[in-house]
């Protein structure tokens, strides 16, 4: 039996937090990790997990009310035993589209709960995913009785410091899913840490806009799709009036000048390109980052040919879920579950890098303290 075949036999354990529709877990499964426990507070997410992975233990609970001991007990594991804890805490508090209240938003504090569970459960590795806005998310510090001082990027620095105090060496990278064969331009931050002194390197991109392996497109994603559910949001007659005039790859700027202020309303005089307004997708390029609501004027995902947003099934294809994967809850909840998931192919690429590190047990070597290391590429990922 070859080394590669032997490597495929060994499975490492994963405890999944903020499991959602299990996009991250599916990718990690393909990389060699067995999900022994999933945790989520959403009823639709829990129903989705039960339907598709009935053998996986499930905790329907708010992580803020959980201790690491409770999570480990449910997983049937001891402190320090899990090979991996993974998850993508709610990102709405950090996204640049939102109000960016950071940890002042109750959802923003969930990243601290993820760190707390990791620090107490002591897995060998952890993987945390979030929007790139977390890199600049502020913290507010008191200053001699004056108005709290806003420190840009303070949250990310604080998280890394807490993980370092807990004995974890961390690497982080901002990865674009399109660079790894996913038909979607989606930039997300991944933090990977371990307490074993093992080498970790993020995977090398496999695709590019121009090269031997070009970015995969929306057309690639939707090819051969047979939509059994027919779940799809709808546009109003007013919205259809404008989308009829917009070609694939266009947006509100493709409208006749006389119609542009009518379509845009109060946003017409705003600054910026506003390229997501009345946007019609094209089969020839990757899909933009999927959002929870595909039908809004400000962030449209109009089908390249039809007068409708992308359907739930098309959303799932863009995120690389298997066609047989079933999503539970209302139509809008299904859109939300899919949009919030980690693309399975990107999760697999990161998971393979973690798997290689766990298998190799190579010492890190000389470090300058415990500082962050830039994105590095191991020889095994080079073609």
Helix content: 25-40%
Unreliable sequence segments: 1-8, 362-383
How large a portion of the residues is in β-strands, by DSSP E? 5-15%
Distance linking N and C termini: 23 Å
Output the number of helix runs: 12
Topology diagram in text:
Blueprint: H1 3-9, E1 12-17, H2 23-31, E2 33-40, H3 43-52, E3 57-60, H4 68-75, E4 84-87, H5 110-121, E5 125-131, E6 139-143, E7 146-151, H6 154-165, E8 169-176, E9 187-194, H7 218-222, H8 237-243, H9 260-264, H10 312-318, H11 331-340, H12 344-360
Helix pairs in contact: 2-12, 4-5
Structure description:
The protein has 383 residues and is an alpha/beta fold. It has a domain at 11-209 and 343-377: Rossmann fold (3-Layer(aba) Sandwich), CATH 3.40.50.150. The protein has 12 helices and 9 strands. It has helices spanning 3-9, 23-31, 43-52, 68-75, 110-121, 154-165, 218-222, 237-243, 260-264, 312-318, 331-340, 344-360; strands spanning 12-17, 33-40, 57-60, 84-87, 125-131, 139-143, 146-151, 169-176, 187-194. It has a 7-stranded mixed β-sheet, with helices on both faces. A two-stranded antiparallel ribbon has the order 6-7. Strand 4, helix 5 and strand 5 form a beta-alpha-beta unit. Helix 2 (23-31) crosses helix 12. The protein is globular and about 65 Å long. Mean pLDDT is 88; it is low at 1-8 and 362-383.
